[in-house]
Design goal:
It contains seven helices and ten strands. The protein is α/β, with parallel strands linked by helices. Bound molecules: adenosine-5'-diphosphate (2 copies).
Length: 225
């Protein structure tokens, strides 16, 4: 079954077309990148998937359900942003545990899942640390763990690495891909970095002015004229 489907999705703000007929079919466990210049509508697609905004027309399906029937809080769509937005007064452990506690998961299950997730992102040793004691890359790994630990059906990543310096960014790209494969989770990454798109994606959707200009595997995209 396809995990995420957008069918002829249009979005207008006032009278401006921001998305003009977006069609996407994303399989379970795919790593997808939306690549394109600033303002082409990438983040708008993510906001429509989370329910932060509605499409003007068209159909959005996740996991076989039409999103017009599913309230944003019930969508099980996770999101990681460029700014980590961690709780500054909570330890790494508490930051990652927070969403599980909100969902009334039993304490021993919370502890088990948080520990597992901290191992997966390589921060088991840092669980007692506070955000200000961590590097930017480590903070982004906490943000990733916090989003993943609630087991979303789809994880959306809005330029999560672009605030980091080049070397750490490269390292985290590889790590992100490894984690994605391990969890077999569907991920949709937004970026304007061509090299990043190339190195992490199963498939790339190249966007321009609210439309999909090209779609395919990294080698499809970069060997065709
Ligand atoms: P990207 O993520 O590719 O940079 P966005 O999806 O953020 O692009 O924005 C696409 C276009 O929609 C831009 O021209 C932006 O100015 C416009 N836009 C985004 N949000 C709003 C809004 N709330 N009201 C009006 N226009 C908006
Ligand atoms: P809570 O009451 O906060 O839900 P638990 O009492 O279920 O947490 O904790 C179970 C285990 O989880 C603890 O033995 C410990 O190993 C770990 N743990 C819980 N809270 C923290 C914390 N703030 N920092 C580090 N580890 C913690």
């Amino acid at each position: 079954m396809s995990n995420v489907i957008l069918k002829d999705v249009h979005k207008q703000y006032e009278k401006t077309n921001v998305l003009s007929g977006i069609n996407m079919t994303i399989e379970d466990g795919e790593f997808i990148t939306l690549l394109g210049p600033s303002g082409c509508g990438k983040s708008t697609i993510l906001r429509i998937l989370t329910g932060l905004t509605d499409a003007t027309s068209g159909k959005v399906m996740i996991d076989g359900k039409d999103m017009k029937d599913v309230a944003p809080k019930n969508r099980q769509v996770g999101m990681v942003f460029q700014s980590y937005a961690l709780f500054p007064n909570m330890s790494v452990y508490e930051n990652v545990a927070f969403g599980l506690k909100m969902n009334k998961i039993k304490p021993n299950e919370v502890a088990k899942r948080v520990e597992e997730m901290l191992h997966l992102v390589g921060l088991a040793e840092k669980k007692e640390a506070y955000p200000h004691e961590l590097s930017g890359g480590q903070q982004q790994r906490v943000a990733l763990a916090r989003s993943l630990v609630v087991r979303p059906k789809v994880l959306l990543l809005d330029e999560p690495l672009s605030a980091l310096d080049a070397q750490i960014r490269k390292h985290l790209q590889v790590e992100l891909r490894t984690i994605q494969r391990e969890l077999q989770m569907t991920m949709i990454l937004v970026t304007h970095d061509q090299e990043e798109a190339m190195s992490v994606s199963d498939r790339i959707f190249v966007m321009n002015k609210g439309k999909i200009a090209q779609e395919g595997t990294p080698s499809d995209i970069y060997t065709k004229p």
